[in-house]
Specification:
There is one protein chain. The protein is an alpha+beta fold. Helix content is 52%, strand content 11%. The longest helix has 37 residues. The protein is globular.
Length: 622
Amino acid sequence: MTLDLRETAAPPASGGMPDTSGLNFYEEDRNLRFVLDTRLPADDRALAEPVLREAGEVAGGELDRLARDAEKNPPQLVQYDARGERVDEIVYHPSYHAMERIAFERFKLAAISHRPGLLGWTGTVPHAVKYALSYVLIQSEFGLFCPVNMTDSAARVLRRFAEPELRDRFVPRLTATRMEDLLQGAQFMTEKAGGSDVGAAETEAVPWGPGAEPRSEGVGEPHGFPNSNDGAWRLHGDKWFCSNASADLMLTLARPRGAGPGTRGLGLFLVPKRLGDGARNRYRINRLKDKLGTRDMASGEITLDGAFAYQVGPLDRGFVQMMEMVSSSRLSNAMRAAALTRRGLLEATVHATGRVAFGRTLDQHPLMRETLLELTLDSESATAAVVHTGTVYDAADRGSEPDARLLRILTPLIKMAICKRARWSTGESMEVRGGNGYIEDWVDPRLLRDAHLGSIWEGATSVLALDVLRAVTRDAAHEALIADIEDRLRSVRDDEVRRAASLLLPLASRLRTSVEAVATLPDDERELPMLELCDRLYLLYAASLLVEEAGVQATAGSHRKLVIAAEFIRRRLLRLPEGWTGPRPGSGTWFRAVIDWQPVPPGAATALLDHLAATMPVALAV
């Protein structure tokens, strides 16, 4: 017997202003639990469950309260001490330090990709699990996870490219699991002359040793530091946007004196905050940025005034090595945007099911159902893309060349698409709450502010589109992506789900042709279609993941995910005429079951799939 939940609704909360305080964000997220069941090996899934459940409780309570306090009490720059000596120290509110302990110490997020034996694993924790854990916590706190990610990715860069002495000295401190032992990392790349155009960077590096002519009087040789023959340098220049400005170790790019122009002339350097004798390194924090969002985390403007630095890897490979950190950060940004989208959906759903208007709860009104379904599609597609890309990351790290090619295009693609869409979805979830959503007593304004940052950090939309184009022209990475999509669609076994897959296969073929045609155009001309092509590539990738998940769920007798996949295809991929009046099972008949993650019987999506199949020639012709 199938339970029909079409008109079931939760009773309104007291006062009609419900919120999410005290909810376990992991237990509330049936979709995340299903995706992890689908994507993770059984052993990893079992180990992840108690950790994620604990994180969900922390996110819905302690961390949420700390994040509100930290944002209201942003960090302060103290440039001089009582004696008038320059100290450039950043003072944080106690709530921020409490959040650091949750992320770095309690959940060990900067260490679990590097140190074996943490959180119950005998080896290192898989990236997919790390992203899922971060995804749960970020729903309450976005800003702190910039320092967490940069510390994690700095350790990755040093492990891959630094000399053994440098690696062995600093990686254990970057991956420490006690705050007392931890050195936090940062990436200082942006300059006034070069934001997206990194090759325009003007910071200069001069050798530390005899014969160098530094621009200003330097500090004495720091105790225990290598000499110039071991890769010691002095850096001179200004860095314009430095997040986690209080970091202990900063990776930065500089042009060795006499090196050529562009990115090929840049070397990668590690700048310690403190010298070997405990003295502060020669750089100044000029001021902190007054930012729209992430106000609890310090971003500043920094002058390197002969700062001591270690060389990391060959001098002519600095930009390539730094991109390892940027790529890791891009995946982290996509995950953070997915988390913001999910929190917005949770807030909107809790409000709509508990707020009464015109005699009914908001979620019983058809137009509100449309909005909640749209938010659900955004959230579930983003979660699918982030978790699956995490598994691709793990496979690439194990040496899989096909997965490395796939990761090459997925990294800029999902960062671009998910971050961009999160700006819309957090705005819509704010509107669901009405006037309260615009008030700082509620979480919605913070979600909206932080979402806008995702589209800027680590490459704005145009930069990412160009990176996708490079992945296409240099690595033929689109072939790996389209093949991955087609293999996934052809592996579906459920007959009804295969109908949805059959709608996507011709789109995949058509998109492959379009990408290859664009790749043959002259440089300027082939850039112009990339924004639209990237959008289509991501939507097809996300749709294929939803169809795959629908196939898995169908084996348990429910077609809920098939309704989601069919609605996603109709609303995101097929350009149907305006005012379309076809079936809408996700916001109509089966809305309540879809939102509450209840079983949906086979056949629920049949009418929509029939309509899509009939209108497919029209959609492809537009």
